[in-house]
Structure formats: C-alpha cells, structure tokens
Design brief:
Elements: E1 9-15, H1 22-35, E2 40-46, H2 53-63, E3 67-72, H3 78-88, E4 93-96, H4 108-116, E5 122-126, H5 134-151, E6 163-166, H6 167-172, H7 183-189, E7 195-199, H8 214-234, H9 239-269, H10 282-310, E8 319-323
Parallel strand pairs: 1-2, 1-4, 2-3, 5-7
Antiparallel strand pairs: 3-8, 4-6, 5-6
Helix pairs in contact: 5-8, 9-10
C-alpha cells in the first residue's frame, strides 16, 4: 500500500562531470516548478565526478533545501545512480532527466499531467527529432525495434533519459548494470502495464561531450536486452529453463544410444559380421555428449533453483556524501 506524499514531483538527475551545465539546469527546473506551483525536490546523483560538480550541488542545496544530493565514491554507471535515487525520493511523481541540457525541463508539466490525470504508470519521452551523431542514432533505432519485438511495448525511444513514473513503479523495480536502457521493459514485467509515450524536445548538446560510445553501446545494449529477458522470465524459476533443456537433451542422447545399441544387436542376431563396434560410430559420441550436457543442464537448473530461493538481493554502492536526505 502506497501513501501519498506532500511532494508533487521528484526530479532525479544522475551526472558525471557536468559542472558547466548544472547551474543552468537547476535554475531552469526551479523556474518551471515555481511557475506551475509544484512542490518538488531535485535529487542530483554524482556518479564519481572529478570536476567541480559536487561543490555546485552543495552550494545550491544551501540556497534551496529542495535540492538534494548523493555522491558516489567512484563511477558506478547511470543504472546504479538511478537505482539509488529511486529509493531515496519521496515525491508522488518521479521525473528522470540527463544533466547535459539535452532534455528540456519545460516538458515536466506535460509528463506530470499524463501520470496524474491520464493514469499512466510510466511515460517515456520520444526524441522524434534528434541532434545525435549516427554512431548513436543507428544503434538506438536497432535496439528500439528489437525491444519492441521482444517486449511487446510499442515505444519509439526506450533509451530516452526523460521519463516520468508513478512513485510506486520506481520503488518496485531494481535497475543494475546498464539496464536503465530498458526500464519500461522491467516495469512491465513487474506488473506496471499502462506505459505511454510523449514526443519531447531534444536539444543540441551545449556543454561537454557524450559519455557513451557507439560500438560498446551496440554490443552492451544487445546483451542487456537478453539478460533482462532471461532474468524476468526465469530468474525466480531457473529449473523451468535449464530443466527443460536438460531433459530434452538427455532424452535425445538416451534415445540415440538405444537406437545404436538396438541396431548393433539386430545386426549380430542376423549374422552380419561387417558391423563396426558401437564405440567406433560418430553417433555414439553424439549421444554420449547429449546425455552429459542434459545432466549438466538439469543440475544447473537445480542449483539455480536452490540459490534463487535462498538469495537476498541487494545492491551496495560506495556513497560518500548525502545532502538533504535522511539516513
């Protein structure tokens, strides 16, 4: 059961070395919130910055208590920053955005309305017109198509950093590794199925350079999608995956060995002396390997089942400082 907070909106912003853009971004968000008379908090998560970013968070927090911060000891990645931020916020609606000024805070009222008035669990931004290089847009188009096909969620831009959520959504999911790209998929498989999309403005980068590479984005994104699919479907019941595969492999190998032995016995019975030894036939080794793999897969499923029933999931990050947050 969720309780309604007195804070309308929590804005969660992970960042890494964004001391040029942070002052302008914070001022812009504050202006939008005040113009729309929202109660709010801005949670800035420093993912191991080495520039002056954290000192800017400290300065702004002293000026405005609604500005809060968490500082990581080192760089853990965007997913870790979002995961920690999700468990620290207290607003009824959660807005995530990037710190590089490519996401416009002017979109916040529209996203908030879709959550509160239209009843969406999650609304993802769609940067219909992009200012990114081809090394970023081409992999994005591929993964959007692949994710739509696998998840059944009809979104055009899964990886858009500008999103809005009901607070219960972010409190119910775990985001780790580089899974932030597929939060809508994680949310759907957690039972939140009313997922919408809003065309949002994508602004050209004003400060700094992108923190993500094209090739690694392509490879890691594909592997993450497979991981999400497997964990969501079989994470709590690994025997359903490994056990079925193991049983099928064992039956195949055992049946093949029975066929080889039966064929040999029939040949001996009929007096055929030209027959090769069973161990000289390639089919014998194929059947033997299939039986061994089948047993190993079945045991993997059994061990996985025991681990999943006894494991306690938790993520530990090196947080060195917190501003404006209890604990």
């Amino acid at each position: 059961m969720t309780t309604e907070s007195s804070i309308d909106i929590s804005v969660v912003i992970p960042f890494l070395n964004e001391d040029e853009s942070l002052p302008e971004l914070i001022e812009w968000i504050e202006r939008v919130m005040n113009e729309n008379k929202f109660t709010y908090e801005i949670l800035l998560i420093d993912d191991g910055s080495t520039d002056k970013s954290w000192s800017l968070v400290e300065q702004n927090s002293k000026r405005n208590p609604a500005i809060k911060g968490i500082k990581f000891r080192r760089n853990y990645g965007k997913s870790a920053a979002l995961n920690v931020g999700f468990h620290a916020i207290s607003g009824n609606v959660v807005i995530t955005m990037d710190a590089d000024m490519q996401d416009s805070p002017d979109e916040i009222p529209g996203l908030y309305k879709m959550i509160i008035d239209d009843g969406y669990d999650l609304v993802s931004g769609w940067k219909k017109k992009r200012y990114d290089p081809l090394t970023k847009t081409i992999p994005t188009k591929f993964f959007n198509a692949a994710t739509r096909s696998i998840s059944g969620i009809q979104l055009n831009d899964f990886n858009c950093g500008l999103k809005a959520y009901k607070s219960e959504v972010v409190k119910s999911i775990e985001v780790y590794n580089e899974m932030h790209r597929y939060i809508p998929v994680i949310a759907k498989w957690a039972g939140f199925k009313k997922i919408g999309e809003k065309v949002v403005q994508h602004r050209a980068r004003k400060y700094g350079s992108t923190k993500f590479g094209g090739i690694s984005r392509f490879i890691n994104g594909f592997l993450d999608l497979l991981t999400i699919f497997f964990v969501s479907k079989f994470g709590k019941r690994p025997m359903h995956f490994f056990g079925v595969l193991g049983t099928l492999m064992f039956i195949f190998g055992f049946s093949l060995s029975i066929y080889i032995i039966s064929d040999k016995l029939i040949s001996v019975y009929n007096g055929d002396v030209v027959q090769r030894n069973i161990t000289d036939q390639p089919l014998f080794f194929i059947s033997l390997v299939a039986v061994i793999i089948g047993v190993q897969l079945f045991l993997a499923g059994f061990i996985g089942e025991m681990i999943s029933r006894n494991a306690t999931e938790r993520n530990i990050y090196g947080i060195t400082k917190r501003i404006g947050l209890d604990g």
